[in-house]
Design brief:
elongated, three-stranded antiparallel sheet, about 170 residues, 1 helix, mainly beta, disordered N terminus, eight-stranded antiparallel sheet
């Protein structure tokens, strides 16, 4: 009975109260292959001017590994930012993804598809470990790139239902 009430209550929650993913989940792919380990997680600052980690660091399989576009879009920037080569893709609807350090021959205005080569990872960002930094923004808001390739919603664990207990089941 309790399980039925909890499930009914969850189903009656208005959609506006349920957190919506900030991404077109399932439409994006990992920018490195095989699926990379996350070396440093997304840690946005509380205020735009404070320090934080506005993306994720992903481990590449080897130095010089190919970096691919996680979704289709248009190259909006290729160049140096401070001391690192950066590639930025405009995916439309205000979404942009950036990758560094990546050596690329692309030019602003080039169209890329999901899985298209953007360039090659360059060593140095994570010390001796080959990696890239992947950032995603919608307008001026930094988003967790992992939300575009993984389901980050928390799992809800329900208590087990034992047959014959009168709480469901066929017993």
């Amino acid at each position: 009975m309790k399980v039925s009430i909890v499930l009914a209550a969850l189903l009656l929650v208005p959609q506006s109260m349920v957190a919506q993913p900030a991404s077109p989940a399932g439409d994006w792919s990992w920018p490195l292959s095989p699926r990379p380990a996350v070396l440093r997680a997304f840690d946005p600052p509380a205020r735009p001017w404070l320090s934080g980690h506005r993306g994720v660091d992903l481990q590449a399989a080897f130095d010089g590994a190919p970096v691919t576009s996680p979704a289709s879009g248009t190259v909006s920037f290729v160049g140096m930012v401070v001391d690192r080569p950066v590639v930025v893709i405009d995916h439309g609807n205000g979404l942009r993804s950036s990758f560094e350090p990546v050596d690329s021959t692309l030019r602003p205005g080039d169209a890329v598809g999901r899985g298209s080569a953007l360039g090659r990872e360059l060593p140095g960002h994570c010390g001796a470990t080959p990696c890239i930094h992947w950032g995603v923004r919608r307008g001026d808001e930094y988003l967790n790139p992992l939300a575009f390739v993984m389901d980050l919603r928390p799992s809800i664990l329900l208590p087990p239902v034992s047959p014959g207990s009168g709480q469901g089941g066929s017993g």
